[in-house]
Amino acid sequence: MTINKKEAFAKFGIKQKNEVWSWSGINRDAPIPISQNLEAPICVLTIWNDQYDYKAGIWSIFNCNNEIWKDSNGNKARIEDIKYCLSELNGEFKAIFIEPVKRGIYDETREIKKISINDKLWFRITRFDEETGECEAERFTLD
User: Fold this and answer.
1) How far is the C-alpha of 143 from the C-alpha of 40, rounded, in Å?
2) What average pLDDT does the segment 3-32 reach?
3) How far is CA 115 from CA 15, 45, 64, 87, 139, in A?
4) Separation CA 83–CA 36 (nearest Å)
5) Beta strands 92-100 and 112-117, pairing class
6) Has this prediction a pTM greater than 0.70?
7) Cα–Cα–Cα angle for 51, 55, 60, nearest 5°?
């Protein structure tokens, strides 16, 4: 089943601030359709597949040519969502995985090939630069 970004966020009960430039969101109080085991509030961040090391369980957007996106509306909104995530949710978030058309290319606007969700995976922010929006997170599981 192919879904778009709007549908992916909706599965977490999140209405994007903007369908084009929103790359994160927070569900403060709505039911979460994707799983009855999840409760609000919940933060959701998009993860480009080629910036995620599946074996190590580490996602990082440090040194990914952030100059071209650091002042964008989507990044500014994501910075605020990450701040909330760190202060209110112990840095824990769910992910929407984005497969790019061109893997490993960071010097241009990226195009989406495919979007997927895995509601079992959790991530915790381990490093964050409030000025640039660059961050890093590790995957973990709830027991």
Assistant:
1) 19
2) 94
3) 17, 13, 20, 28, 19
4) 26
5) antiparallel
6) yes
7) 25
